[in-house]
Amino acid sequence: xxxxPRPMVxxxxxxxxxxxxxxxxxxxxxxxxxxxxMWAIPGGFVDIDEPLEAxxxxxxxxxxxxxxxxLEQFHTFGDxxxxxxxxxxxxxxxxxxxxxxxxxxxxxxxxxxxxxxMRALPPLAFDHDRILACALEHLRQRLKCFxxxxxxxxxxxxLNELQSVCEAILGEKMDRQTxxxxxxxxxxxxxxxxxxxxxxxxxKLYRVRSAx
Amino acid sequence: xxxxPRPMVxxxxxxxxxxxxxxxxxxxxxxxxxxxxMWAIPGGFVDIDEPLEAxxxxxxxxxxxxxxxxLEQFHTFGDxxxxxxxxxxxxxxxxxxxxxxxxxxxxxxxxxxxxxxMRALPPLAFDHDRILACALEHLRQRLKCFxxxxxxxxxxxxLNELQSVCEAILGEKMDRQTxxxxxxxxxxxxxxxxxxxxxxxxxKLYRVRSAx
Lengths: 212, 212
Prior knowledge:
2 copies of one chain form a homodimer. By secondary structure, chain A is an alpha+beta fold. Chain A has 4 helices and 9 strands; from the N terminus they run ββββαβββαααββ. In chain A, the strands form 2 sheets. In chain A, strands 1, 2, 3, 4, 5, 6 and 7 form a 7-stranded mixed beta sheet that branches. In chain A, strands 8-9 form a two-stranded antiparallel sheet. The longest helix of chain A is centred in the middle third of the chain and has 17 residues, at 128-144.
């Protein structure tokens, strides 16, 4: 029954952060073939009795030391030919972190781990350029709905801080007044009642309105 | 190299339609074990050299006769134990169709095919109740962004027709004026200039504004 040839199944984890208002991604340099020495998204094979998200967390921690992040599955890539070892289907996850929350270190199959600007990526192993492009597009789509991307901001933040995050993700500057009007109209924020002094002037602090 | 045990990989296709303002899903009755005789989402095994979306289209047509629909991948399910035959990872797709566009007929592994109301589903094979719930949540999330769900409406439509689609998906009635204000403010529609007489009164016709 069903003794067809079976594909290999892997997970990949795209970790984005913001450093000096630049959107950056966590990459690892591969120790082993195929693509040995090339940079890649952290990831690896799913154990036969392991849930997909557990595999993603395990690979991420083994290769980069990063743990305790909110992972969101965003797409599964399975084109024949994407892996020279044979048919491999990869379930891709996405996480947003604050750069000061994680201190990447290489481990296991990774010779090196580090942040790369999305605007100056090295050549990547497999179809990882396509996976990164898809992850970014996924983020951008969500932003068009004014859903505040979780993870990149502290619990309370100013509208300027939120705008910086949005601009880094969208890759474009936005008019300050238009941004404020749209975001506030979307009804996804609530005022905390608190203020932070920015350049000597008080700026209102907001938090994400909790889902009903 | 990598001679670990490999999972099986399948695709499943959730096809939603609107019939008399009720959100319905296309299900097939399984001919073979496991879960023989039970209703399930159309789907099946991915051939070793077949792209994932091609597998989804093939299985959908083989089991239901439905073809030429816009498929969107929405989630991959892979919990150990979800298939009694062994570890099986399924890549799930979603499509929205107009009921008059498809005429389901059973075929291949399906003994029967038909529309079921999302509010009165039969017991389902595998974890297909969870997959359906996830598909519906995916639709609802998108609707919160006022992205008009493609496929359920003709090319031009009235705001009342759009509201019916949204209400069926969200499972709740909405205030007519609030709905209109929100949808128009979202800027996703454009007037066609045309009108349709509804109950003797002219109603403006809209289309989805094309993406930039």
